[in-house]
Amino acid sequence: MKKTKIIATVWPATESEENLVKMYNAGVNIVRFNFSHATFDGARPIADRIKKLNSEGKTNLSLLLDTKGPEIRTGIVENKINLVAGNTVKIVVDASKRWVEDIYCDYEYLLEDIKVGETIIIDSGLCNVKVLEIHGDYLIGEVLNSCVIGSKRHINLPWVRLKLPGITDKDKEDVLFAIENNYDFIAMSFVRNKENIAELRELLAENNASHIKIISKVENQEAIENLEEIVMHSDGVMVARGDLGIEVPIEKLPFYQKEIANLCLKNGKFFIIATHLLETMIENPFPTRAEVSDIYNSVIASADCTMLSGETTTGKYPIEAITMMSKVIIETEKSIQNPHNNFCNEGLNSRDIEKKALIRHSISIAEELDAKAIIILTKTGLLARLAAAFRPNIDVYAFTKNDTSVNYMNILYAIKPLLLPNWTNDYLSNVENAIATLKSKGLLSSQDKIIAVTDIQKDGNEFPIIEIIEVK
Length: 472
Fold this sequence. Notes:
Elements: E1 5-9, H1 17-26, E2 30-34, H2 40-55, E3 62-66, E4 81-83, E5 88-92, E6 103-104, H3 110-113, E7 119-122, E8 127-134, E9 138-143, E10 147-149, E11 155-156, H4 169-180, E12 185-188, H5 194-206, E13 213-218, H6 221-225, H7 227-233, E14 236-240, H8 241-247, H9 253-267, E15 270-274, H10 289-300, E16 305-308, H11 318-333, H12 350-368, E17 373-377, H13 382-389, E18 395-400, H14 403-409, E19 415-419, H15 427-440, E20 449-458, E21 461-470
Parallel strand pairs: 1-2, 1-16, 2-3, 3-12, 5-6, 12-13, 13-14, 14-15, 15-16, 17-18, 17-20, 18-19
Antiparallel strand pairs: 4-10, 5-9, 7-8, 7-11, 8-9, 20-21
Helix pairs in contact: 1-11, 7-9, 10-11, 12-13
């Protein structure tokens, strides 16, 4: 069983019940809905389908809603605009003043925020325009490479500190949809600072949905400048290499990916590596050697998750792409021996710190005694998060009585979450039931040695304990 989890985006190529089961069996743990394109009417039946399959025991999939975020785009054009390298182009912020060959930008502060000499990137780098002159209601730029511009193309403004909201009105509607439909994660697009995260956390709290975990997508220069505070205030972080690779010099992208990974590991936060991991499998049944190496390096970097986007939405080989990713992950993990590095106590109370120490020692004991597995009993998933942050080398089965905790733990490195429906306040009964469950699934056998970590109740207080057990 792989320790690194897989997130797969769902839509036309994979939305059927049959394909959802195939995705799960191929190795998917979390299903992503990209609300840059998704609609409520389209997403609702797919989410209901997944919940039905989960309830029937055919899948164990969590739901992730990826917001559109505050984007900047060009306007709608009747005919595509042909731009020739070396020529100049006018860019306006008032659509009523746009001539046929002018480009409209919907960022109202463009003219006051941009500077002469800076570059405007259009359509993910297909067209770059260097600013030459700035006037009252337009600017003149030099076209750096020939291109054709259609309607609503994405615009990036590297190095510009944008005056955009953390959460747009559309994002608020989408988050409320996620709450109503029991999603487990919100991936927040174009996060720039900790205030953006606080705004989303407040919206979730106001709607009794603080259990939904916030994944901050790092995809612009301002986020890189505020990286440490973003990591500290997020539940998890996504290295969104698509826009990030446009906003920063492309040669620096691997460095920033490593920096994000190191900060997440230092702070005990889960992180996801996304974009272009198997891009060629959208059209081809086999990946490039570079893509296989990219997945390998993502696993070596200790990512909790790797993610597929177009490969599983519009791709011709969605199940094959998931299978390939799983195979590379499993093969890579055979060569890994994690050192269980410590991480900071930020955000942990004194009892949590005790649990963290207990978890760390339980992992060391399990390895020293060559135990078959670690069993964790947890209500909220905190013990599992602490265990995952230490990157265990053996299987960790986390039992809980809450569906929301199962769904949260699906994203954590090496954690195999299971629901324990007959949960009681007697920890001995819970451990026995957990062992019986694993035996019934063929995951444990008689005389296997396991380490159990749980809380016991005494005088109205909870105390974390470790127990060494030989399976009867």
